[in-house]
Amino acid sequence: MYKAEMIFRGTTSILPRRFPARALWAVAFAALLLILLASVTAGSGAGNTASATERVGGLTVPADPSLDGVECVKLCVAPRKATPGAIVRFTGAHLDDVRKVVFPGKDGRQSSRPVATAPGALRVKVPHGSDDGHPFAIDGAGAKSNRVPSELKILPASAIPTEVFPVDGPVDFGSSGARFGAGRNGHTHQGQDIIAACGLPILNVRRATVAYNAYDGNAGNYVVMKNKGSNTSFAYMHLVKPSKLKIGHTYDAGRKIGRVGETGDAVGCHLHFEYWVGPWQTGGRPIDPLPFLKSLK
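-> structure tokens emitted (297 positions)
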């Protein structure tokens, strides 16, 4: 028989003075099994959550890509009307591993590799030969997404507009208080209010460069665009959120600036639109934009 050795000094052993070594190893092995069992049970519980982790080995299984929206951002006719060679932006989930986007085609499917990807969005060039329809994405593992819910129309480059109305949806020009020159607290109204539902897209009227993209207590979220080829600027105010357009970048007519809101000193959702000859607020002068807006309608 062997005497059991004390593992920790200063403690009283619960083992008898004479304890077989074989039995001691059996106790240790049983304790180890209990620890491993507890670990596996905890890991199994975590694996039952809605994660993409396998139960064995802790490997991460990539989720399939999914698409929920599409918008044209360059060489566009309208937000969901593109031209061959246009850049379109898809939104969704699990898009960072997408290797190609498949478009309907006049002579069969056309595919294009993304020019930029992120988990929630990707950009891709519309291939020549594409047709109207609902594109889908394929990731590096060959998994296919759903077809994007909104139809993307493909039109010839000749359809790209030189001017568009600034709100994509039903509008009203309001009463006399919405007009240019109407009285305000300490000043006169420098633009025309376009009454529209909250959330309707606000579009860039002409090809122009972003001069200002900021927030003001009166204007709310606003953007000022310096029109190419003329000494004029257009201002768009009370956007729901700050615009994603970049200062100094040039955008075509029809590019989405933001959405109709009521930020700043606004009562009810509307777009406050200003037409300036010369620099905006720094030497130029505003003119009544209503005749011009009516001509666009």
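Residues 21-47 form the longest helix (27 residues).
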